[in-house]
Amino acid sequence: MNGQASRLIELNKLAGLGKKDSASKIISVCSGKGGTGKTFFAANFAYQLSRVNKKVLLIDLDLNFSNLNILLNQTTTKTISAFFSQSEAMEDIVFNYSNNLDLIFGDSGRSDYPRVSREILDYFFVMLRKIRDRYDYIILDSSAGADELVMRQLMKSDYNIIVTSPEPTALMDAYAVLKLLIEDESEAERFVIVNKCSDADEGENAFINLSTAVNHFLKEHVELLGIISYDSIAHKSIINQELLLNFDPQSIAANEILQFVKRFITITQLANNNQSR
Ligand SMILES: Nc1ncnc2c1ncn2[C@@H]1O[C@H](COP(=O)(O)OP(=O)(O)OP(=O)(O)O)[C@@H](O)[C@H]1O
Ligand SMILES: [Mg+2]
Known about the structure:
This protein is an alpha/beta fold. The chain has eleven helices and eight strands. The N and C termini lie far apart (40 Å). Bound molecules: adenosine-5'-triphosphate and magnesium ion. Magnesium ion binds at residues 38-39, 62, 141.
C-alpha cells in the first residue's frame, strides 16, 4: 500500500471517531443564497450559547469571503489559512474572544490563500474532532452556495442550520441545498432560520412554503428553529462592528435569538440523553 493510501485510511478511521458518541455538537450554518445573515446569526448565536455557560468555538469557514473578524472588529495574524497551508496547528490559531467563546478567523482578499481541497477539508475535520471535547458547541460559518466543499462540510457536521429569508430566491436556494443534502443521504439534522422577516406571519408562511416543498417533492421533513425579524438595529450593530446582543440586548431580533438558543440547547440535550442510553 502506498503512503498516501495508508494516510487516507488512517484519516478515515480518525474521522469516524467521535462522530456520534460525543456530547459536543458540530453545527454548520449555511444558506445557498448569499447575504441571508449567516455570519450575523452564527456570531450572535455562538455568543449567546457562551453566555449561558456553554463552551463554544466559532469558526469562519467562509472560504470565499471571510469576514467574521470585521463583524467582531478583531485583528489577528493567525488565521485558518495558516492551518490549511500546514504552517500552524489548529490549537495555535484559536483566539479567545470572551469567557467561554473561542474563535478561529479566516482571511479574505489574500492572493496566496491556500486552495482547499477535499483532502484538506477532511483533515480539518479530523483535527476538529481531536479538540471537539473541549467544547459543547462548534459552529462553522459557511460560504454561500452549495459547491462540493460546502456540501462536504455540511455532511460532516451533526447539525445544519439553513439561514434563509422570505424572498422566493432565498427560499429556492435553501430548497436546493436541502435537496442536495437529502439526495446525498446526509445524516446531519436540518433546521431552518427565516431571517429578515417583516413580521412573524411572513416568516411562518415562508417556512410553510419551504417545508411543504420538502415534504412533497423530497418526502422528507425539515424543522423550523426560529424566525428573526428584519431589524434596523441589527443592521446598525453590524455597521458598528458589535454583536447585536451587546449593541442592543432589548432589540426585537436579539430577543428572538435568545428564544431559539434556549430551544436549541434543549434539542441537543435530548439528543445527548438518547445517545447515552
Ligand atoms: N435580522 C436582520 N435585520 C436587518 N438586517 C440584517 C439582519 N440580518 C442580517 N442583516 C443584514 O444583512 C447583511 C448580510 O448579513 P451577513 O453578512 O450575516 O450575511 P451572510 O449570509 O453571512 O453573507 P455571505 O453570504 O456574504 O457570507 C448584513 O450586512 C446586515 O446588514
Ligand atoms: Mg457570511
